[in-house]
């Protein structure tokens, strides 16, 4: 029967993506054949549930195809990895402590942000391979990864996928997932409440894997940068895994001290680009299948052709047409898709850096000369920062071009964008201002 199981694995390998086979099917081991039932083993309870939920039907079908008699299969937990003889071993029936560990890091890991759910294309294949390799190996020379992309390209998905994979394979590892902003806030809280030693101990000695998102937020936060650099030194020396994510490379983050910049630059920097048409089609197909949506192929192709900015825009289009179809009781056709897409697509061809500057100047009652001047008056600096933020969001212009358009360096442009992003998270008045200007741009009223 072991021979039959090997043939079954070969057949399954041809039917599912290679990374899925390597992660879930290949590690399955044949144990015995017992009364028309094949007994297999895997490493832990998480893997067992995952395999049965996603590949159970396929495995049973292929077993019946390969054998002359009808057979079932069961999966046992490999006792070599999950024995109960040692108190240090984790109990495979108690996955909740891992979830608590995520909370200690600041955030839960999203359940759907796994390697299985990530669509690999030419735009992200290197980042995917680097992430999977780092997550899969216990030890290695390169334990630090820097995921780089614009917003909505999948860097958070890969970051959390690493955390999921490590927790599923080595449930005793302490995985901390946190944004740079929350890391900074936690450090400030620790100083104010005389608990800085506890904070240092948490990240330096009680952390096996650090997933740190949006490191560009640390721009200008000198005290946090010093503390993080010292923490990274400790983790590097202990050969711990560290994953950073950011919308810009370490060399472009303004007001970053040389010590921290050097440590970030030592990472393996993996860029994620915009997905091409073929990859966008596969993303939509996967999202539709996962959510149980029945979307015609011509509509999938239409969405992939029109929504080209990022993965989030694709999701918005897919969820938009299915929601509208459900609410109106209408079939999903080209007419319905067009009505949804026209409300999503920004008028990028008409929105330029100059039109943004004119709109902002008119709304804040300043002149074009004011906004590109060297003035540091608040009534001019703030509109300039908002204009730079809108330029980044509503055009494809690189930071260097945006900075030059406002008579500034690209680092200043990045800093200005960060200031507005922070305001959007914390100040409702800022949010209302930006949303008003965005509506103006998207409606063509500029």
Q: How would you characterize the overall build of this protein?
A:
With 446 residues, the protein is an alpha/beta fold. The chain is 57% helix and 9% strand. It folds into four domains: 2-81, DnaA, N-terminal domain (GMP Synthetase, Chain A, domain 3), CATH 3.30.300; 102-270, Rossmann fold (3-Layer(aba) Sandwich), CATH 3.40.50.300; 277-341, Helicase, Ruva Protein, domain 3, CATH 1.10.8; 353-443, Chromosomal Replication Initiator Protein Dnaa, Chain: A. The protein has helices at 2-13, 18-25, 45-66, 79-82, 96-105, 125-136, 155-169, 180-192, 196-204, 222-237, 258-265, 277-290, 297-306, 311-328, 334-341, 353-364, 368-371, 378-394, 399-405, 410-426, 428-443; strands at residues 29-33, 37-42, 72-77, 144-148, 175-179, 209-213, 241-246, 268-271. The strands form two sheets. A five-stranded parallel beta sheet has the order 5-6-7-4-8, with helices on both faces. A three-stranded mixed beta sheet has the order 1-2-3. A hairpin with a 3-residue loop joins strand 1 and strand 2 (37-42).
